[in-house]
Amino acid sequence: MCDCRKVRDVRTPGAPPVEGRDNRFAQELFSPLPERYDRLAEWLSLGQNGRWRRAMVGAVAASDPQLVLDVATGTAGVALELAARTGARVVGVDLTEAMVRTGRRHVEAAGQDGRVRLVVGRGEQLPFERDSFDALTFTYLLRYVDDPAATLRELARVTKPGGVVANLEFLVPDSAWWRAWWWAYTRTVLPVAGAATGGREWFTVGRFLGPNISAHYRRYPLAWTIDAWRAAGLDDVVVRRMSLGGGLVMWGTKRG
Ligand SMILES: C[S@@+](CC[C@H](N)C(=O)[O-])C[C@H]1O[C@@H](n2cnc3c(N)ncnc32)[C@H](O)[C@@H]1O
Prior knowledge:
Layout: H1 23-30, H2 34-44, H3 48-61, E1 67-71, H4 77-85, E2 89-94, H5 97-109, E3 116-120, E4 133-139, H6 148-157, E5 159-170, H7 176-219, H8 222-231, E6 234-242, E7 247-254
Parallel strand pairs: 1-2, 1-4, 2-3, 4-5
Antiparallel strand pairs: 5-7, 6-7
Helix pairs in contact: 3-4, 6-8
The structure holds S-adenosylmethionine.
Residues 23, 26, 30, 41, 71-75, 77-78, 94-96, 99, 122-124, 139-141, 144-145 line the site of S-adenosylmethionine.
């Protein structure tokens, strides 16, 4: 296990469930998903999720970190890629215990349990001291939190000054042409393909994702998000639109 002294497991036997005001929805959505998550995330993103992940991890790997926090780590796909592409020890945090349990199995199967440690916790309230990590990644998180600006401040808080913070998220394409295709894919193909490949739970996810992404960017447009990163104390913010604008990889450096 990771010997990071600043890291403690937030769940002890008998402790109350980890959740905030708005966390129950995400927990209920993700709890039935972990067994098929990795395969279906690739299929339903038409193979793009892996590309986006590699781009995000590349931004962090370039800074040669020793200790990285991966928030919303899920089944540990990002955490394991970080371990493979850097010399860092990695701590993964996720709200949903079922995702973390599967993630731990993946970590063990990859022989990385000496370098990667997963804990249950909330991105909004991380159980770590200020300036603990050399770098931080977070994936598909801000659509599930009540207050994205406050969550960004929390992510920046635990990152050391000069450390890279990198994010992967869905995005709505800018071009009207590609947006129409994206809309058709997310509103029709995604629910049907979700049901066909993963049953009722993946139908729910497939039906939820498109409207959720649209609603998120109506409320928090990309320009707002970039400002929120800066307000959280992150400088040199880079924005990379991926796959015709359906994906977003962003990174910046903690001011200090
Ligand atoms: C789409 S999955 C992404 C998993 C992984 N990062 C990946 O790319 O494969 C999103 C994850 O965010 C987690 N999550 C949602 N809200 C969260 C929160 N407030 N704090 C921490 N994790 C959260 C969910 O439990 C879920 O595992």
